Amino acid sequence: MCNLEDAKLVVLCGAYLHDIGNAVHREQHHIHGYNLSASILDRILREVYPEDPELRLRLKTEILHCIFSHDENVRCLTVEAGSVKVADGTDMAEGRARIPYEAGKVDIHSLSALSIREVRVVEGEDVPVRIEVDMDNPAGVFQIEHVLGRKISTSGIEEWVEVVALEKGKEIKVIHTKR
């Protein structure tokens, strides 16, 4: 990465574009997104860095890596991509499950997501990032472990993140990642 502002641009673009592949299909959407984003990034980066084609190419590849590696099965190779992946994993509050649940999809995924009230990303004490997941009942732990936990484990930044499960504001489980 060139500087902090460039890194912020990589994370911003990666975050905005990471799910664009869902326009094609949910399966393999990280690959579809990678392909769909290339021409969009060419236009955006030409506006931001009109005089530096080498920098544009480096930033484009970094952003495409964010998009491709946000899938939980792909290992992130940069802090920027790991940041996008972990942030994506925090999107698990009750609204995510409301429509499938009301449409009749009653399973552990929808029930655990419905139990989550709020996700907060705050500064940690022992590690830089602490993610607090507040839920109505412990069913939300499934969501934490199987959605967020899987993303963290392949983020490349797992040693800098901890997750705390809270039931109605009371700490019930600290999920430490690898240290």
Average pLDDT, rounded to a whole number, is 89
Using the CA coordinates, give the radius of gyration: 17 Å
Report the major sheet.
Answer: 4 strands, mixed
Distance between the termini: 25 Å
User: How many strand elements?
Assistant: 4
Content-based structural category: alpha+beta
Strand arrangement within the widest β-sheet reads: 1-2-3-4
Number of helices: 7
Share in β-strands: 15-25%
What fraction, in percent, of the residue positions are helical? Answer: 40-55%
Specify the overall morphology.
Answer: globular
Residue windows where pLDDT falls under 50 for at least 5 positions = none
In words, what does this structure look like?
- The chain has 179 residues and is an alpha+beta fold.
- It has two domains: 4-78, no CATH class; 90-176, no CATH class.
- It is built from seven helices and four strands.
- It has helices spanning 4-17, 29-48, 53-69, 79-89, 95-102, 108-115, 140-153; strands spanning 116-123, 129-135, 161-167, 170-176.
- Helix 5 (95-102) packs across helix 6 (108-115).
- The longest helix has 20 residues, at 29-48.
- The two termini are 25 Å apart.
List the main descriptive attributes of the protein structure presented here.
179 residues, 16% strand, four-stranded mixed sheet, alpha+beta
